[in-house]
From TrEMBL:
Gene Ontology molecular function: ABC-type transporter activity; ATP binding; ATP hydrolysis activity
Main localization, broad class: membrane
Species in which this protein is naturally found: Acyrthosiphon pisum
PROSITE patterns named among the record's database cross-references: ABC_TRANSPORTER_2 (PS50893)
SUPFAM superfamilies tied to this protein: P-loop containing nucleoside triphosphate hydrolases
Family per record: Belongs to the ABC transporter superfamily. ABCG family. Eye pigment precursor importer (TC 3.A.1.204) subfamily.
UniProt keyword Nucleotide-binding present: yes
Domain ABC transporter: 51-296
InterPro entries found in the cross-reference section: AAA+_ATPase, ABC2_TM, ABC_transporter-like_ATP-bd, ABCG_dom, ABCG_transporters, P-loop_NTPase
One Pfam family linked to the record: ABC2_membrane
Membrane topology: Multi-pass membrane protein
Protein name: ABC transporter domain-containing protein
Residues that span the membrane, as ranges: 454-481, 488-512, 532-554, 613-633
Length: 637
């Protein structure tokens, strides 16, 4: 017997006609004509959150918080389902359990199946999952965002023409044409130049439609939308169910009676239990049978929410009564007599060919690059600040750089400023930036859009232009204004050295962030480390007098490496320095005496440059391993 069709009779009798007929068509075929039209059901489903009270005493103080308490339910194939309940009731948890999207620290017991397969057998591309809180790369326009998502989500065999057509179709279907070229924004800006909160919701929904998934889970898709837009979204969902045989499950808050009745099935969740499951228009009579009568002219959804939010006692009464009701019996019967589908032919399980890794890396790098170029708070403000500082520093050294005893101090001062400016600011800047990118990374990583190495490498690649432009501009301004006397080779190598100093500093920032896993902890440790690196640069202490156990730090102090390299570069060919007329002022006769004073050796120039390259690679390698490990263990905070 085809239980799916039997069950749909109970659940769809009063659904809108066009919708209803398609559902019957679908269920009567029992999935034969439409292989992806499958029921979803769950039984004895309990979900616990594992809460660690003290991260240092791990296992001893782990508590389990019950989020869902042995719930069961059945969603017929190709249904439009609404999940409702008070805040914190467990709606998102239930939906995440059905879509195999529960986070790692959540424990799931019981069965949740689609057709005859556990939901765990389904990969993320089988589901569209619209989160309650949208997250975007705000600098992209709607079209760019959808194009980027399509490039990463669609099967690699999709031609460019089809991909563009898909993006255009989704834009048209959801009425996003007017804002297709508007930047999405982060939600905090003046709404004139970016999308409104409601439009962002629709873009979020559009993103999930791109892959044409068989099962669409939407956490509060209508929240924040005006009633017209909400109706429009629900209409699209109805069409997906009726014309395209999809199953759409939504969490909704405060729907109008009209909106609520557009759904085939209503599931009420309260306090981690099921308070009702059945046709929306039968919910009120169920509540009446339990002793809660909805006053005339009262919005039925508001009434239901009032009862379920009232007290634990009323929630328990409703849930107990539901468990003993005919509605629960129908659910039980449907689950007991579950249909065994031949899953071998399911197209949802057929091999989806994800885009090649380099293709993902290419698009991801492009997105981060656009983000940097378009988001002034990321790089442009810092760049302008750097130009300003360069001019100020240049003014301070204007006319002071000469081949005299006094000029030696100025030259060394210029080098100190070149190193300092490319040492501290870039390091702290990347340390602060990385955590801001993590929420979007976590969301996209758990959706299997790309992996942690792709994110990390894309981040580094997109930073390369900044890494070259910033030190080059800064060094050039200071060099010209201070009047450094050098040839083109000297200038070129000076720029390379400052670029390397900045590169090592940023890689060190990444490394500390990823070793410690939290910005505050990383900052606590990086500051003393920085200071030691700077003190051991040869400027503040003679390197000969440094205690033996700190020699290894001198060897990796890129402050020292950079400063020494610049000093050698400048002084190695200076054959004459004028002495002061004052006999009390010590006289360094030529460049080699200047180098001797600092204990710097000409032969160290190129080795120091190579060491900085190795430090850059080494710091990033450590950082990369820590980042990828943390991502896999779900420990990125
Ligand atoms: N990872 C977690 N760790 C601990 N508690 C959690 C976790 N996830 C959810 N919870 C708790 O589980 C309960 C149910 O959360 P859930 O997000 O499912 O509620 P909801 O019904 O969707 O609420 P809302 O309508 O406010 O989004 C809440 O009390 C929440 O604090």
């Amino acid at each position: 017997m085809n239980l799916a069709s039997t069950y749909s009779v109970f659940f769809n009798t009063d659904a809108p006609d066009d919708h209803n007929s398609s559902l019957h068509l679908c269920t009567n075929n029992g999935g034969e004509n439409n292989e992806n039209c499958l029921p979803i059901y769950w039984e004895n489903l309990s979900v616990h959150a594992m809460i660690k009270k003290d991260r240092w005493l791990r296992s001893s103080i782990t508590t389990r918080k019950l989020l869902l308490n042995k719930v069961e339910g059945y969603i017929p194939p190709c249904s439009l389902v609404a999940i409702m309940g008070p805040s914190g009731a467990g709606k998102s948890t239930l939906m995440a359990a059905l879509a195999n999207k529960l986070p790692a620290q959540i424990e799931l017991e019981g069965r949740a199946k689609i057709g005859s397969l556990s939901v765990r057998n389904f990969e993320s591309h089988n589901f569209g999952y619209m989160y309650q809180h949208d997250l975007f790369c705000g600098s992209l326009t709607v079209k760019e965002h959808l194009h980027f998502m399509a490039k990463l989500k669609l099967d690699r065999r999709t031609t460019d023409k089809n991909l563009k057509a898909r993006v255009s179709a989704v834009i048209e279907e959801l009425g996003l044409g007017q804002c297709a070229n508007t930047r999405i924004g982060t939600g905090g800006e003046n709404g004139k130049t970016t999308l409104s909160g409601g439009e962002r919701k629709i873009v979020s929904f559009a993103t999930e439609l791109l892959t044409d998934p068989s099962f669409l889970f939407c956490d509060e898709p209508t929240t924040g939308l005006d009633s017209y837009s909400a109706q429009k979204v629900i209409k699209v969902m109805q069409r997906l169910v009726s014309d395209e045989r999809k199953t759409v499950i939504c969490i909704i808050h405060q729907p109008s009676t009209e909106l609520l009745n557009a759904f085939n099935q209503l599931i009420l969740v309260a306090d981690g239990r099921i308070a009702y499951s059945g046709p929306p228009n039968k919910a009120i009579s169920f509540f009446e049978s339990v002793g809660y009568r909805c006053p005339d002219n009262y919005n039925s959804a508001d009434f239901i929410m009032k009862i379920l939010s009232d007290s634990n006692e009323s929630v328990n009464i409703v849930c107990d009564e539901f468990a003993a009701s005919k509605h629960a019996e129908i659910v039980k019967n449907a689950i007991t007599n579950e249909i065994y589908f031949d899953t071998s032919s399911l197209s949802v399980l057929r091999n989806h060919l994800s885009p090649f890794w380099p293709v993902k890396l290419y698009h991801l790098t492009g997105r981060y690059f656009l983000e940097k170029v378009r988001n002034p708070t990321i790089d442009i403000h810092r760049f302008l600040q750097k130009v300003g500082i360069a001019i100020m520093v240049g003014l301070c050294y204007l006319g002071t750089v000469q081949q005299t005893q006094v000029g030696i101090q100025s030259v060394q001062g210029v080098f100190f400023m070149l190193i300092t400016e490319n040492f501290f600011t870039p390091m702290y800047s990347v340390m602060n930036q990385l955590p801001t990118q993590l929420p979007l990374f976590r969301r996209e990583y758990t959706s299997s859009l790309y992996d942690a190495p792709a994110f990390y490498i894309a981040n580094i690649l997109s930073f390369i232009p900044t890494l070259i432009i910033e030190p080059t501009v800064y060094t050039t301004i200071v060099y010209c204004m201070a009047g450094m006397q050098t040839d083109l080779y000297g200038y070129f190598l000076t720029v390379i050295i400052t670029i390397l100093v900045m590169a090592v500093s940023t890689s060190c920032g990444y490394m500390f962030n990823n070793i410690f896993g939290s910005l505050s902890l990383a900052l606590t440790f990086v500051q003393p480390f920085d200071n030691v690196i700077m003190i051991l640069s040869g400027i503040f202490v003679n390197l000969r007098s440094v205690p033996w156990f700190l020699h290894w730090i001198v060897k990796i102090s890129w402050f020292e490496l950079g400063f020494e390299a610049l000093t050698i570069l400048h002084w190695q060919n200076v054959t004459y320095i004028a002495c002061s007329e004052d006999p009390d002022v010590p006289c360094l006769m030529d460049g080699s005496e200047v180098l001797d004073k600092y204990e710097f050796k000409v032969a160290n120039l190129m080795p120091h440059i190579y060491t900085m390259i190795w430090l850059y690679v080494g710091f990033h390698a450590v950082s990369f391993v820590c980042f990828v490990t943390r991502a896999r263990l779900n420990k990125l905070s």
